[in-house]
From TrEMBL:
The keyword ATP-binding does not apply. Keywords: Endonuclease, Hydrolase, Nuclease. GO terms for molecular function: 3'-tRNA processing endoribonuclease activity. This is MBL fold metallo-hydrolase. Pfam families: Anti-Pycsar_Apyc1. Gene3D superfamilies: Ribonuclease Z/Hydroxyacylglutathione hydrolase-like. InterPro entries: Metallo-B-lactamas, RibonucZ/Hydroxyglut_hydro. SMART domains: Lactamase_B. Residues 17-198 form the Metallo-beta-lactamase domain.
Amino acid sequence: MNLTILGTGNATVTHCYNTCFVLDEGDQYLLIDGGGGNGLLQQLEKAHLRWRDMRTVFVTHKHMDHLLGILWLMRMMCQSWRRGTYDGEAIIYGHEEVVSLLHAMGNALLSSKDSAFLDDRLHFVTVSDGETHQLIGHDVTFFDIRSTKAKQFGFSLQLSDGKLTCCGDEPYQPWEEGYVRDSKWLLHEAFCLDAEAHIFHPYEKHHSTVKDACETAARMGVQNLILYHTEDKDLTHRRQRYYDEGHQYYQGNLYIPDDLELFRNL
């Protein structure tokens, strides 16, 4: 299992792409979220990944910086099916609000000839809290993070020797413990340094600091922690600065990736 981080930024970044990523197992690919626009297509290209291979998609929630890129992927798929240059089918997973919104926007924004492929070649699967599906050869359990901003799901994917867990783009909450505890890999948002919380005000946005995320990972027995969904004011030094603060609270393997970073053999 490989992991490609397509974007690492929060909703309003301009110096990196919004948070989204790809998991791949052999020739099977799982795209998680799409960022805020057609920059998704560019990020895939830069990562030497083909949009054509993103046949399994999970969208965590309906915020613009996670959902709008998926509409561009839908457009590329439907146009290509119409032109006869794309074969097979694709599936988008999400909770009921996400699925309903993507379906409605696809019908409203795509041409009638292209939207005809919705539910024909492009399928939408609604997932519920605690439900498990097999995606790219792995059991994936979806869970409601109980966001108060917009309904949002995370997921836990079963690896051969552990699990990879994604908490979405909000801080860990106690009801997620069964999914997060003892994860081999945890993907968790970290809006900014704790030392700069007075500048970026993460708690007002329902986000956490590097310190918060690292304390959670230490308490939950996480082996490898990936921090993303950050501010973008000093990308040149972000990795070192976040690493320096984080390792005061977490002694496991801490990663602060840049856009397009690849993790092999999870």
